[in-house]
Amino acid sequence: MKINQSELECVAVKPAQYPEPDKYEIAFAGRSNVGKSSLLNLITGRKALARVSGNPGKTRTINFYLCNGEFRIVDLPGYGYAKISRSESEKWGEMMENYLEHRDNLLKVIQLVDIRHKPSAQDVQMYDYLKYFGLSGVVVATKADKVSANEKQKNIKLIRETLGMDKTDIVIPVSALKKTGHDKLLETIEELLANAEN
Ligand code: GTP
Ligand code: MG
Protein backbone atom coordinates (compact mmCIF):
# COMPACT_ATOMS: atom_id res chain seq x y z
CA MET A 1 0.00 0.00 0.00
CA LYS A 2 1.00 3.58 -0.57
CA ILE A 3 -0.48 6.60 1.12
CA ASN A 4 -0.95 9.02 -1.74
CA GLN A 5 -3.08 11.50 0.08
CA SER A 6 -2.95 12.62 3.68
CA GLU A 7 -4.28 15.53 5.67
CA LEU A 8 -4.70 16.60 9.27
CA GLU A 9 -8.43 16.15 9.69
CA CYS A 10 -8.92 16.93 13.33
CA VAL A 11 -7.14 17.89 16.56
CA ALA A 12 -8.86 16.82 19.76
CA VAL A 13 -8.46 16.78 23.51
CA LYS A 14 -11.91 15.32 24.24
CA PRO A 15 -14.34 12.89 22.59
CA ALA A 16 -16.77 15.61 21.46
CA GLN A 17 -14.03 16.87 19.17
CA TYR A 18 -13.25 13.53 17.51
CA PRO A 19 -14.23 13.06 13.87
CA GLU A 20 -17.20 10.79 13.09
CA PRO A 21 -16.28 7.14 13.76
CA ASP A 22 -17.00 6.34 10.13
CA LYS A 23 -13.51 5.11 9.19
CA TYR A 24 -11.06 2.67 10.74
CA GLU A 25 -8.30 4.16 12.80
CA ILE A 26 -4.78 2.99 13.58
CA ALA A 27 -3.05 4.87 16.36
CA PHE A 28 0.60 5.48 17.19
CA ALA A 29 1.57 5.38 20.87
CA GLY A 30 4.92 5.66 22.59
CA ARG A 31 6.99 7.75 24.87
CA SER A 32 7.61 11.33 24.05
CA ASN A 33 10.42 11.86 21.51
CA VAL A 34 10.40 8.21 20.35
CA GLY A 35 9.57 9.30 16.80
CA LYS A 36 5.78 9.02 16.35
CA SER A 37 5.39 12.19 14.31
CA SER A 38 8.49 11.37 12.24
CA LEU A 39 7.06 7.93 11.47
CA LEU A 40 3.81 9.47 10.30
CA ASN A 41 5.71 11.79 7.97
CA LEU A 42 7.73 8.84 6.66
CA ILE A 43 4.78 6.63 5.78
CA THR A 44 2.78 9.45 4.23
CA GLY A 45 5.82 10.67 2.29
CA ARG A 46 5.29 14.15 3.67
CA LYS A 47 8.11 16.14 5.19
CA ALA A 48 6.06 18.19 7.59
CA LEU A 49 2.60 16.75 7.94
CA ALA A 50 3.17 16.22 11.66
CA ARG A 51 5.42 18.48 13.64
CA VAL A 52 8.71 16.90 14.67
CA SER A 53 10.79 18.32 17.45
CA GLY A 54 13.93 17.66 19.44
CA ASN A 55 11.99 18.88 22.49
CA PRO A 56 9.97 16.06 24.00
CA GLY A 57 6.30 16.70 24.56
CA LYS A 58 5.66 18.30 21.19
CA THR A 59 2.40 16.51 20.46
CA ARG A 60 -0.02 17.24 23.31
CA THR A 61 -3.27 16.58 21.49
CA ILE A 62 -4.84 13.64 19.68
CA ASN A 63 -4.23 14.31 16.01
CA PHE A 64 -6.34 12.52 13.39
CA TYR A 65 -4.80 12.20 9.92
CA LEU A 66 -7.05 11.11 7.08
CA CYS A 67 -5.16 8.84 4.66
CA ASN A 68 -6.24 8.10 1.08
CA GLY A 69 -9.66 9.33 2.17
CA GLU A 70 -10.17 5.82 3.58
CA PHE A 71 -8.71 5.40 7.04
CA ARG A 72 -7.07 7.46 9.74
CA ILE A 73 -3.74 7.38 11.47
CA VAL A 74 -3.99 8.85 14.92
CA ASP A 75 -0.91 10.43 16.52
CA LEU A 76 -1.32 10.14 20.28
CA PRO A 77 0.47 12.39 22.77
CA GLY A 78 3.64 10.79 24.14
CA TYR A 79 4.15 9.59 27.69
CA GLY A 80 7.13 9.70 30.00
CA TYR A 81 7.82 13.36 29.54
CA ALA A 82 9.32 14.37 32.88
CA LYS A 83 8.70 18.09 32.73
CA ILE A 84 4.92 18.07 32.83
CA SER A 85 2.95 18.89 35.96
CA ARG A 86 0.79 16.42 37.81
CA SER A 87 -2.42 17.99 36.55
CA GLU A 88 -1.13 17.81 32.98
CA SER A 89 -0.23 14.18 33.47
CA GLU A 90 -3.75 13.46 34.77
CA LYS A 91 -5.20 15.22 31.75
CA TRP A 92 -3.01 13.04 29.54
CA GLY A 93 -4.26 9.86 31.23
CA GLU A 94 -7.87 10.84 30.88
CA MET A 95 -7.41 11.83 27.25
CA MET A 96 -5.74 8.47 26.44
CA GLU A 97 -8.33 6.38 28.31
CA ASN A 98 -11.22 8.14 26.66
CA TYR A 99 -9.79 7.40 23.27
CA LEU A 100 -8.29 3.93 23.72
CA GLU A 101 -11.15 2.40 25.70
CA HIS A 102 -14.15 3.81 23.90
CA ARG A 103 -13.27 4.27 20.27
CA ASP A 104 -15.09 1.46 18.44
CA ASN A 105 -13.50 2.16 15.05
CA LEU A 106 -9.98 1.89 16.54
CA LEU A 107 -8.44 -1.20 14.93
CA LYS A 108 -4.97 -1.37 16.41
CA VAL A 109 -2.45 0.65 18.34
CA ILE A 110 1.05 0.52 16.96
CA GLN A 111 3.44 1.00 19.84
CA LEU A 112 6.75 2.67 19.18
CA VAL A 113 9.89 1.94 21.18
CA ASP A 114 13.43 3.21 20.65
CA ILE A 115 15.54 0.39 19.20
CA ARG A 116 18.56 1.47 21.26
CA HIS A 117 17.06 0.92 24.69
CA LYS A 118 15.40 -1.75 26.73
CA PRO A 119 11.70 -0.79 26.89
CA SER A 120 10.96 1.26 30.01
CA ALA A 121 8.50 0.33 32.76
CA GLN A 122 6.04 2.71 31.14
CA ASP A 123 6.48 1.00 27.76
CA VAL A 124 5.70 -2.33 29.40
CA GLN A 125 2.69 -0.85 31.18
CA MET A 126 1.39 0.54 27.90
CA TYR A 127 1.83 -2.78 26.09
CA ASP A 128 0.01 -4.64 28.88
CA TYR A 129 -2.77 -2.10 28.73
CA LEU A 130 -3.09 -2.45 24.96
CA LYS A 131 -3.06 -6.24 25.31
CA TYR A 132 -5.92 -6.07 27.79
CA PHE A 133 -8.03 -4.13 25.29
CA GLY A 134 -7.03 -6.35 22.37
CA LEU A 135 -5.14 -3.54 20.64
CA SER A 136 -1.57 -4.84 20.90
CA GLY A 137 0.54 -6.96 18.54
CA VAL A 138 2.46 -4.50 16.38
CA VAL A 139 5.55 -2.71 17.65
CA VAL A 140 7.75 -0.36 15.65
CA ALA A 141 11.37 -0.10 16.78
CA THR A 142 12.35 3.46 15.85
CA LYS A 143 15.70 5.08 15.05
CA ALA A 144 17.05 1.84 13.53
CA ASP A 145 19.80 3.90 11.86
CA LYS A 146 21.43 4.32 15.27
CA VAL A 147 22.40 0.66 15.72
CA SER A 148 24.47 -1.89 13.78
CA ALA A 149 22.83 -4.86 12.06
CA ASN A 150 24.10 -7.10 14.83
CA GLU A 151 22.74 -4.89 17.62
CA LYS A 152 19.46 -4.60 15.76
CA GLN A 153 18.70 -8.32 16.10
CA LYS A 154 19.85 -8.41 19.71
CA ASN A 155 17.77 -5.39 20.67
CA ILE A 156 14.65 -6.63 18.90
CA LYS A 157 14.94 -9.82 20.95
CA LEU A 158 15.23 -7.74 24.13
CA ILE A 159 12.18 -5.68 23.10
CA ARG A 160 10.15 -8.85 22.52
CA GLU A 161 11.15 -10.32 25.86
CA THR A 162 10.72 -7.15 27.89
CA LEU A 163 7.29 -6.35 26.50
CA GLY A 164 6.21 -9.98 26.84
CA MET A 165 5.23 -10.16 23.19
CA ASP A 166 3.53 -13.26 21.79
CA LYS A 167 5.11 -15.30 18.98
CA THR A 168 2.64 -13.93 16.47
CA ASP A 169 3.23 -10.30 17.52
CA ILE A 170 5.59 -8.38 15.27
CA VAL A 171 8.42 -5.88 15.64
CA ILE A 172 9.23 -3.70 12.64
CA PRO A 173 12.52 -1.79 12.70
CA VAL A 174 12.15 1.58 11.02
CA SER A 175 14.37 4.57 10.36
CA ALA A 176 12.74 7.87 9.55
CA LEU A 177 16.20 9.27 8.89
CA LYS A 178 17.30 6.61 6.39
CA LYS A 179 13.75 6.00 5.19
CA THR A 180 13.74 2.26 5.80
CA GLY A 181 11.18 -0.17 7.21
CA HIS A 182 8.09 1.79 6.21
CA ASP A 183 7.19 -0.66 3.41
CA LYS A 184 6.76 -3.45 5.93
CA LEU A 185 4.72 -1.19 8.20
CA LEU A 186 2.45 -0.13 5.34
CA GLU A 187 1.97 -3.79 4.38
CA THR A 188 0.95 -4.53 7.96
CA ILE A 189 -1.50 -1.61 7.99
CA GLU A 190 -2.97 -2.82 4.70
CA GLU A 191 -3.49 -6.30 6.18
CA LEU A 192 -5.12 -4.91 9.30
CA LEU A 193 -7.55 -2.90 7.20
CA ALA A 194 -8.28 -5.81 4.86
CA ASN A 195 -8.98 -8.16 7.78
CA ALA A 196 -11.25 -5.60 9.40
CA GLU A 197 -13.38 -5.37 6.26
CA ASN A 198 -14.16 -9.10 6.40
P1 GTP B 1 6.33 13.83 20.92
O1 GTP B 1 5.47 14.56 19.95
O2 GTP B 1 7.08 14.73 21.86
O3 GTP B 1 5.59 12.76 21.67
O4 GTP B 1 7.52 13.11 20.11
P2 GTP B 1 7.42 12.15 18.86
O5 GTP B 1 7.32 10.74 19.33
O6 GTP B 1 6.37 12.62 17.90
O7 GTP B 1 8.89 12.28 18.21
P3 GTP B 1 9.34 13.13 16.92
O8 GTP B 1 8.87 12.48 15.67
O9 GTP B 1 9.01 14.56 17.13
O10 GTP B 1 10.93 12.89 16.97
C1 GTP B 1 11.72 13.22 18.10
C2 GTP B 1 13.18 13.37 17.70
O11 GTP B 1 13.71 12.12 17.24
C3 GTP B 1 13.41 14.35 16.56
O12 GTP B 1 14.60 15.06 16.83
C4 GTP B 1 13.56 13.46 15.34
O13 GTP B 1 14.33 14.05 14.32
C5 GTP B 1 14.27 12.25 15.94
N1 GTP B 1 13.98 11.02 15.16
C6 GTP B 1 12.75 10.50 14.89
N2 GTP B 1 12.84 9.36 14.15
C7 GTP B 1 14.18 9.16 13.95
C8 GTP B 1 14.93 8.13 13.26
O14 GTP B 1 14.41 7.18 12.66
N3 GTP B 1 16.29 8.25 13.29
C9 GTP B 1 16.91 9.25 13.95
N4 GTP B 1 18.24 9.26 13.94
N5 GTP B 1 16.25 10.24 14.60
C10 GTP B 1 14.90 10.19 14.60
MG1 MG C 1 4.92 14.03 18.08
Q: Detail the poorly predicted runs.
A: none
Beta-strand level of the residues, as a percent range?
15-25%
Helices and strands: which structural class? Answer: alpha/beta
Number of helices: 5
* Share of helix, binned: 25-40%
Oligomeric category: single chain
**Based on CA inertia axes, which overall geometry fits?**
globular
Rounded to the nearest angstrom, the radius of gyration is 16 Å
How confident is the prediction overall: mean pLDDT?
Answer: 93
How does the major sheet shape up? Answer: 7 strands, mixed
Distance, first to last CA: 18 Å
Number of strands: 7
Name every ligand kind in the structure: guanosine-5'-triphosphate, magnesium ion
The H/E string reads EEHEEHEHEHEH
Order of strands in the sheet with most strands: 1-3-4-2-5-6-7
Question: What can you tell me about this protein's structure?
Answer:
- The chain contains five helices and seven strands.
- The protein is of the alpha/beta class and 198 residues long.
- The protein has helices spanning 36-44, 86-102, 121-132, 149-163, 182-197, and strands spanning 6-12, 25-30, 62-67, 71-75, 106-114, 138-142, 170-173.
- The chain has a seven-stranded mixed sheet, with helices on both faces.
- The protein binds guanosine-5'-triphosphate and magnesium ion (MG).
- Guanosine-5'-triphosphate binds at residues 30, 32-38, 52-54, 56-59, 78, 142-143, 145-146, 175-177.
